[in-house]
Amino acid sequence: xxxxxxxxxxxxxxxxxxxxxxxxxxxxxxxxxxxxxxxxxxxxxxxxxxxxxxxxxxxxxxxxxxxxxxxxxxxxxxxxxxxxxxxxxxxxxxxxxxxxxxxxxxxxxxxxxxxxxxxxxxxxxxxxxxxxxxxxxxxxxxxxxxxxxxxxxxxxxxxxxxxxxxxxxxxxxxxxxxxxxxxxxxxxxxxxxxxxxxxxxxxxxxxxxxxxxxxxxxxxxxxxxxxxxxxxxxxxxxxxxxxxxxxxxxxxxxxxxxxxx
Length: 261
What we know:
Structural class: alpha/beta
Largest sheet: 8 strands, parallel, barrel
Number of helices: 10
Strand content: 15-25%
Order of helices and strands: HEHEHEEHEHHEHEHEHH
Shape: globular
């Protein structure tokens, strides 16, 4: 069953062509900075806030940050869990994600089995997501014991994305890794977009307006940025958000024009 947050995301993508989501890592922010970043993200045009970190081990820290963020914005707050410790009752939804190219079955289905009863008990909306790590992979690749898909092998990304769709996952996430030097290549995004009907999320290494615009033009429905915001301070946060979101919107305008032809 599709829940309210998923319906909201799909409707926004249909109306706007593509959207931006800000990722907040609880281990890299204070309560004050989390509230500031989420509020600025909403005012600049982000469609949702994702909360999660690669090495997060403290459930109380996650609860405090999630509760603070949710109280400061009207847009949805979605958990981006690295493990069963990444669950909080204070969010609106959770990406129920499987790391499809992990070498460890725990990250493909084991953690999900352990987490499912708690997610049900808390009443969190679970959004099925196929998570695919590419390129450098960053910390997520190391922690998730992934075999990152090489940038020059886009056909492997296509195969994983198709597997996600055939397994019933309605979202696919191409993840280059937090703070990496190079984002997901345009060719890989385009090939995956042409192969699957799912919502396509792209994140990792997107630091400029141009990179965001190219990713959307290639077929990304959602652009996620985190590190580029974490590395900014004060007014820099707003200016960087505006830059990235303008890139998303410009790419989206091109997509909508193509759709009308």
